[in-house]
Design brief:
It contains 16 helices and nine strands. One of its GO terms (molecular function) is glycosyltransferase activity.
Length: 472
Amino acid sequence: MSLSRSPSPRRGGGWSSPGLTSPYDNVSGNASPRKTYGDTQTNGSLSGDNVTWAKAKARSEEVKGYPSFSTRNNGFFSRHARKISTSLPTFRMTGRKDFSDKERLGRGRWAQMGGSRTGRFLTYLGRTAWRLRLRLGIFLAFVLAIILFYVTPMHRAYRRASFLGGGSKFVVILAANQGGGVMEWKGAREWAIERDSVRNKKKYTKKWGYDLEIVDMSTKKRYAHEWRESWEKVDTIRNCMRKYPKAEWFWWLDLNTFIMEPSYPLQKHIFNDLLGNTYRDINVYNPLNISHPFQSSHLDLPARSANGDGHANSIDLIIPQDCGGFNLGSFFIHRSVWTDRLLDIWWDPVGYEQKHMEWEHKEQDAMEHLYINQPWIRPHTAFIPQRKINSFPMGACGENGEDSRIHYSERDRDFVVNMAGCEWGRDCWGEMYNYRELSNKLNRTPWEKFKDGISDRVKTLRGKKEEGTEGG
């Protein structure tokens, strides 16, 4: 008889098994009779004494859930799984083709000597970067900070924040369109001056987070009295104080001014050391020969002192002086109770109604009059060297030649130049253009300097070549 496995040691082909042939289960030591696996009637013909291995195997397969009519390992995927897996591509990180040595250290890693040059170079870079990871991290953080604070607009928000850069505390007031369209027509030069001046102030205020107020100073019938039209500077300052309630300092600039050094912030240039950059004793530079200080005994101590109370927080007005006295083409005024009182007196009708023929410079002459005659003005007024915020070109105040206290110096990189009085016999547009080009030259980036150096060198060589050709 053909069996599926080795011949059975028993007659009839059956296997001797306690669970299949014995009517009693003596494996566990229990002597009580019970039905055996062979006594169960599955197909109605099996008994305990006639159980063969083939029948037991068939019963086991039925218990496991494989039906008699189904086939295993006959599906498409089952038959071809091995073929598919062997046909897939294999990847090796090294050039070694023999994988019999399973413990070789080079397996699964970049080959240092046996790989390509690119692999060795990348390995070297990776190891170097890992050794210098701390320094590289610091360097990348520094580069990221530069990108965030100098390339993106984030640096403007930082400079403008009152608790960081403090740019929101400053307002630049620019007088524009003087006399345009009513008293006289504005020509191409006047429009060019206004365009360059406005662009210059916009660039500066945007860089440092300041507010810019461009005031239309065109001559028009805005006020009831005809002479008040020329005194709107004071009225404009009061309107700006109402418009910017959080601002502290207001910087007035005439249209014919040009900021030569846009890299100078007002905080660092002046206000971080206000006492060091200003002086209260007018005797330091006194072109008007004003007697200072007052000597009346009824005045308080700050009014009789040449330097007031000596504190920076009591300074509310900062004025430069030129060869003729006070100059209001560029000055600072601070928001305070004292300032409100000053603007009220400064805007008094007595000034513009009765003194308009005597005071040629309007608010400027009125301010000089108040400083000379009102003791309460001096303790809160400070003067600043003219070249700090209001340098003149050689054509202004040039009767006595160049004055180091007044005229612009390229070597010292003065902050602002004011073409004051250029409309009286000088070329305003020519001066504005020259100083604009000089400012662009002085504030070039290193890359721009490199390009200009190459360009100048090429022009020099071409000039020498042309001279040699003409000489030959």
